[in-house]
Amino acid sequence: MELTDLTITKAHQGLIKKEFSALELCKAYLEKIKEKDKEIFAFLTVIEDLALSQAKKVDDMISTGRKIPLISGVPCAIKDVILVEDVKCTAGSRILENYIAPYDATVIKNLKEKNCVILGKTNQDEFAMGSSTENSAFKITKNPNDLERVPGGSSGGSAAAVAADECVYALGSDTGGSIRQPASFCGIVGLKPTYGAVSRFGLIAFASSLDQIGPMTKTIEDCEIVFDAIKGRDEMDSTSVEPKLKVKSEKLKVNELKIGVPKEYFIKGIDPEVEKVIKLAIKKYEEAGAKIEEISLPHTEYALPCYFIIAPSEASANLARYDGIKYGHSTANNPTIQRSNDLIDVYLKSREEGFGDEVRRRIMLGTYALSQGFYEAYYLRAQKVRTLVKEDFDRAFKNVDAIFTPVSPTPAFKLGEKIDDPLTMYLSDIFTISVNLAGLPALSLPCGKVDNLPVGLQIIGKPFEERKILEIGEIFEKNL
Amino acid sequence: MISKQEVEHIAKLARLGLTEKEIEKFQRELSKILDYIEKLGDEDKSSSLPFAIARVKEVDISKTEPPLVEAKVKKRTKSSSPVEPSSYPIKVENVMRNDEVRRLKPEVRRKLVEMAPEKKSGFLKTKSIIKLPFTEAQMKKRASPSSPNYDGIN
């Protein structure tokens, strides 16, 4: 039996039927990482000791006949922007190169309570800013489907690790598409939960009103399992909420489904082959009995510029904490700086050496947008546009159950293709960004290929209707 | 196009050191991005619309382009009601907890302080941020006899 192509449910079955032990499972994945990651470069840190001790604990539980949760003993990977106690957490940045997390993020606490096995921390764009993982200060991750292409970003390491069978599932974070776009590029399932559904405590902040942690898995079923394990209100995150639970209704009937397809998402600039794959997937839903309706989200074209005011503004405030005084890279002990009497020299030099280009670009953009005289013209205006983007969705959801769009206008692009042109890089998030502005849940589901490259269908739902979009996705995964 | 001086000013505000070459690079790149953002600009300042004219003519869109709209005026359907800004997608405001001290576990506190590049007696150390009215030697003389020991502070 091949141990490294399992889903969570299959691994769980194997464990409780004692077909293999958690230790064997863990070792198989560590071995796989050793062999495979030489060409994929998905991991920044592999934490063998911790993983093995966690696995042993699960074996002990099984041998004493205790019932174990689904994710117990199932090896996973965590994006390096989420804190795991006593493990290095770099956020892909030089400025946190030697930062050891002093506590667990709430999502990690939740997973550990269920005896997860954490194999390591995955590569990403620095501070989750990017769409290809090429902005990492440490290494370039390759797309397992084609080693000359990017895995997407910013959760590119997590997506590549799942796609290359280097772990069973992973956690990523999504601020403008950072779970969904790499999931689409690597051919796996990725869920960005509703804003507030999952605690952000212990997630290194990028743009706090947009960030969400979410699962990256091989199947919809796994996605739901991980989401259930990490979601919920947390007193350490005042924006987290416990939605009023609705009793799970009987199985969704496909012939009662109404699906909206926004015309603004099928535009000049989208790869015609991608469009074909997406349209075919939508057609399959139609043939299965779903009602497909063209809808309009008129402010779509303003979402990207709006995002590129709000996200950098919040980032410039959030990243002010990296000052060379409290933790992280510092020039305070550098002799020339020591001779200076000016504190500002510590700030300037520490941040100059610690931050990469994209991060500095966004900090400056945000500082500019928030600076005197520009606040109203940029930030306040962007917040108003944000309201309009959200209202577009509210209006649409009065008539439809879910909205279908492509995840990205192209399949995975070549390494180096867009890295020198920030604006072109930004445009690869054009279909995912509105969802973050509106705070909605959205799923990236593999729905076909262009040549050898996976294409993801984006399924957007109403706030806190994760379960519904997962069910809608499952219809395709299982039957179409 | 933003000027070189503006780039230097922003970098200083953001506490980012830049080399001469980088200043030029960021001037170029930021200008391009800001031109794109101008899409949100409103030429008619008296209007209650959050935006009116899409100015996209300067945008360089090579591969995956967004819809290129001709300059046009968009009207809100309910044109009389001003649009409220959204700072969060969900409605939460001023979530408070009880005003109680939460003590960190001593080992967490130790870990946090350990990470600082310069520390002294369990505190983080920085260069002075205010000008002292007297010299350091005078300070020492004043403080030394009964200076408290901060080592055991929580």
Describe this protein's structure:
The complex is a heterodimer of chains A (about 475) and B (about 150). With about 475 residues, chain A is α/β, with parallel strands linked by helices. Chain A has a domain at about 5-230: Amidase signature (AS) enzymes, CATH 3.90.1300. Chain A is built from 16 helices and eleven strands. Chain A has helices spanning about 10-15, 20-40, 50-65, 105-115, 155-165, 180-185, 220-230, 270-285, 300-320, 335-340, 345-355, 355-370, 375-395, 420-425, 435-440, 465-480; strands spanning about 45, 75-80, 115-120, 170-175, 190, 210-215, 260, 290-295, 400-405, 440-450, 455-460. Chain A has an eleven-stranded mixed sheet with strand order 1-3-2-4-6-5-10-11-9-7-8. Chain A starts with 7 loop residues before the first helix and ends with a helix. Chain B has about 150 residues and is mostly helical. Chain B has a two-stranded antiparallel sheet. In chain B, strand 1 (about 120) and strand 2 (about 125) form a beta hairpin. The model of chain B is unreliable at about 40-80 and about 145-154 (pLDDT under 50).
In brief, what are we looking at here?
The complex is a heterodimer of chains A (480) and B (154). With 480 residues, chain A is of the alpha/beta class.
Give a quick set of tags describing it:
heterodimer, A: 480 residues, alpha/beta, Amidase signature (AS) enzymes, eleven-stranded mixed beta sheet, 13% strand, globular, B: 154 residues, mainly alpha, 4 helices, 2 strands, 29% helix, disordered C terminus
SSE topology:
The complex is a heterodimer of chains A (480) and B (154).
Chain A: H1 8-16, H2 22-40, E1 43-46, H3 48-63, E2 75-79, H4 106-113, E3 117-122, H5 156-163, E4 169-174, H6 180-186, E5 189-192, E6 212-217, H7 220-230, E7 258-262, H8 272-287, E8 291-295, H9 300-318, H10 335-339, H11 343-354, H12 357-370, H13 376-396, E9 402-406, H14 422-427, H15 433-438, E10 442-450, E11 453-460, H16 466-479
Parallel strand pairs in A: 2-3, 2-4, 7-8, 7-9
Antiparallel strand pairs in A: 1-3, 4-6, 5-6, 5-10, 9-11, 10-11
Chain B: H1 4-13, H2 20-37, H3 106-114, E1 119-120, E2 123-124, H4 136-143
Antiparallel strand pairs in B: 1-2
